[in-house]
Specification:
- The protein is an alpha/beta fold.
- Helices cover about 40% and strands about 20% of the residues.
Length: about 475
């Protein structure tokens, strides 16, 4: 068992203020695999104070962008050497299939570090622009102390969407990992130290909701960066709005995959399996509404059912596993509750249902519903599990209407033999990220959502801008 008795604050491993602990439980074995302190509001105060001191008096915000980029580059090299170990740790603590952990859980965070390390080499802090009466300087300065609050599903990915650009900007950070997945952050803290990032620039306090809200509300926090549920995002936005505090929110999704009549179904199903079932369905970008025309509806249902049925369910550490357990018993019960809701609403279970595939662990049967309509709860609410609803449409205009008929707008895809036409479809769906015959998240382009899927953008140059303040200095003479 991985036992940690301290918190990472001010560049040191320090004793927590309280005696509470967080048990990390394997979703596969239901056994305790790790234990860390349960951070308190007092611990958050100490972490914020360390971040504040590092920002107000330390060297990090006063370095050039190129100097910080060099440090991030060192961090990326260390991360690259340990990404396999990190992937295995994430699989152990939250049940992500090891194939997905090696495909995305760690390579994508590494890519973010590498992107910002390279981007920062030539990024200028100041820019001269002509003015009516003389030159004007536009200066980019770090926003200050950042509270980064992340979920359990892709803990390193989501942490790095905040940490990497915040580091390049010159901010200091307090990271609150989710109680389900704190172990990977301890490993990352050691990398921060090895890379020579100054003390207090990154502080890590695993904790629950009460301490998290205390962190959000802290007067010495200048910006909050949150990924999680839309309900929690609304609460955080309200607190930040009251304090006029900078905030970025990456929230829920209920993405629609539009399958056009000219789509090659066998070719599409391989990529759609990843797009819809990645990480055991525990992904905000998962394509969980499958839209099929009535002309090919039965054929699409059959193809989706075959695709889902072909995914081996089992031990997430086994490279052959396609779908592992959900992160916690409450998540298992939540997803099974939605399966029952779908059945009660009149949708037909084609694959899966309420029979659990494993006697031990927090598994649910990967499930496909046919006969679903877009007004059903299984089509409108984020389930966060391997549950897909195949919804019929009349024509392309109807498909676009259904895709846009959602409170969310995070992601979406279209599947077609005509990529140019697919691009036309993509331009009409109100989401922050879209894929034509694929689902890709890149480090050099912005990621975020429309509507209730969030505020602001992460990654790319736009992600760096979220951690900068812009100062205009005009002068005469």
């Amino acid at each position: 068992m991985r036992q940690h008795d301290t918190l990472f604050i001010g560049g040191e491993w320090v004793a927590p203020a309280g005696t509470g602990v967080i048990d990390v439980i394997s979703p596969h074995t239901e056994e305790v695999v790790g234990r860390v302190p349960d951070g308190t509001p007092a611990d958050m105060d100490r972490a914020v104070a360390a971040a504040r001191a590092a920002f107000d008096h330390g060297p990090w915000p006063r370095m050039t962008f190129a100097e910080r980029a060099a440090a991030i580059g060192r961090l990326a090299d260390i991360y690259a050497a340990k990404q396999g170990e990190m992937a295995a740790l994430i699989t152990e603590e939250m049940g992500s299939p090891i194939t997905f952990s090696n495909l995305a859980q760690t390579p994508q965070p590494l890519g973010m570090l590498q992107f910002y390390a390279e981007y920062g080499k030539t990024f200028e802090q100041e820019e001269e622009r002509p003015g009516l009466f003389g030159p004007t300087t536009v200066r980019r300065e770090p926003v200050g102390v950042v509270a980064a609050i992340v979920p359990w599903n892709v803990p390193q990915f989501v942490s790095m969407t905040k940490i990497a650009p915040a580091l390049l900007a010159g901010c200091t950070i307090v990271l609150k990992p989710a109680p389900e997945t704190p172990l990977d952050s301890y490993m990352f803290a050691d990398m921060i130290t090895e890379a020579g990032i100054p003390a207090g620039v990154l502080n890590i306090v695993p904790a629950g909701r009460e301490a998290g809200e205390h962190l959000v509300s802290h007067p010495d926090v200048d910006k909050v960066a949150f990924t999680g549920s839309t309900a929690a995002g609304r609460r955080i936005a309200a607190i930040c709005g009251e304090q006029l505090k900078r905030v970025s929110l990456e929230l829920g999704g209920k993405s629609a995959a539009i399958i056009l009549d000219d789509a090659d179904l066998p070719a599409s199903m391989g990529m759609l399996a990843i797009a819809s079932l990645m990480n055991n369905g525990q992904a905000c970008v998962a394509q969980t509404r499958i839209l099929a025309s009535r002309n090919r509806y039965d054929e699409v249902v059959e193809a989706v059912a075959a695709m889902v049925s072909s995914q081996p369910v089992g031990d997430p550490a086994d490279p052959a596993t396609g779908i592992g357990p959900l992160v916690a018993k409450r998540q298992q019960e939540r997803v099974e509750g939605y399966i029952k809701i779908g059945m009660d609403e009149g949708a037909k279970v084609v694959v899966g249902g309420l029979t659990r595939p494993m006697d031990r662990g927090w598994y649910v049967a990967p499930t496909v519903f046919a006969g679903a309509t877009n007004d059903m709860r299984i089509a409108r609410e984020e389930i966060f599990g391997p549950v897909l609803a195949v919804i019929p449409y009349e024509d392309e205009a109807d498909a676009l209407r259904i895709a846009n008929d959602s409170e969310y707008g995070l992601c979406g895809t279209v599947w077609t033999a005509d990529t140019d036409h697919g691009m036309d479809i993509a331009r009409q769906v109100r989401t922050g990220t879209y894929g034509v015959n694929c689902l890709m998240l890149e480090a050099n382009v912005p990621f975020g959502g429309y509507k209730a899927s969030g505020l602001g953008r992460e990654l790319g140059p736009e992600g760096l801008s979220a951690y900068l303040e812009y100062k205009t200095i005009a002068r005469l003479g």
